[in-house]
Write a structure and sequence with these properties.
single chain; 277 residues; alpha/beta; three-stranded antiparallel beta sheet; 8 helices; 13 strands
Length: 277
């Protein structure tokens, strides 16, 4: 994304969110640190007092980037996608990446974390694990590896998805309810085109264009109001985007139990594990 367009979007987001109760993720699909101006993007969010979080595979997480991010007060959370606890498994799943280097990058990041908010070492740090036939045998060891580090808030275990971004397996499927996802997020592509949520993975339902509209105009615009009416009247089948989407399941309450000695919160298509210290 062009930096001038990015700054326009963030400036408008700040105007809509002066109290700072909402947060931004400066990426959508893909690795954010690939962007040649990644740190400039984060620094602008910091300058504007916009809370932000990241998801990264940590392969490009240099010491310079870590030191810069750790020094930012509005950088509140990060999730590292690892998917294996041995070089053999990881290198097979994360083709082109090197397990030892990735772990080295994450360990350096963790070593620099010292600030605490509400008892949580900041930024709040998650580890992601996509459950695959190649790595399932390492799940218990993976949980023990990461959750015995008090700086890790949780490990999230996701089922792999098919080409339609639908999980191949569910923990459970709750009764369908109206989706409120569009009330929480706007996904903005590098082109500046806005889409309602990650469920529109083929970008079929644009809500507006930030190059010629303000965020407020898009947020209050007719396309998003149409989605809202369909959801509130339980007519999601009339929307090509909504009828097969699973984003509404994010609203489901988890089934809480214990597994491998950790607290497990099972949501419809992923599970979150925590160690209670």
């Amino acid at each position: 994304m062009d930096m001038d367009l990015f700054k326009k979007i963030i400036d408008e987001f700040k105007e809509m969110n002066p109290e700072g109760t909402e947060y931004a993720m400066p990426h959508f699909q893909g690795e954010p640190m690939v962007h040649p101006q990644f740190l400039e993007i984060c620094e602008y969010l910091e300058k504007k007092h916009v809370v932000f979080s990241l998801t990264s595979n940590a392969t490009l997480l240099t010491k310079e980037i870590t030191d810069a991010l750790i020094g930012m007060g509005y950088f509140k959370a990060i999730a590292f996608s690892v998917d294996g606890m041995s070089a053999g498994t990881y290198n097979k799943v994360r083709i082109g990446a090197e397990y030892e280097k990735t772990i080295e990058n994450i360990e350096y990041f963790l070593s620099k974390m010292s600030k605490k908010e509400n008892g949580i070492t900041m930024p709040c740090t998650y580890i992601n694990f996509v459950r695959l036939p190649e790595n399932e045998h390492e799940l218990e060891g993976f949980l023990n590896l990461w959750l015995n580090n008090p700086k890790i808030y949780a490990v999230c275990v996701n089922y792999k998805t098919d080409f339609n971004y639908t999980p191949v397996k569910f923990n459970f499927v709750p009764p369908r309810i109206p989706c409120k996802y569009y009330n929480f997020y706007l996904n903005i592509l590098t082109s500046g085109i806005v889409h309602a949520c990650g469920g529109d993975y083929q970008y079929k339902y644009p809500l507006g264009d930030t190059k010629i509209q303000t965020l407020a105009e898009i947020w209050e615009g007719e396309p998003i109001k149409k989605l809202e009416k369909l959801q509130e009247s339980s007519k999601w089948e009339e929307s090509e985007v909504c009828k097969n989407c699973i984003c509404w399941m994010y609203q489901a309450s988890p089934v809480v139990s214990a597994e491998f000695g950790f607290e497990k919160s099972a949501y419809p298509f992923y599970s979150r594990y925590r160690k209670i210290w």
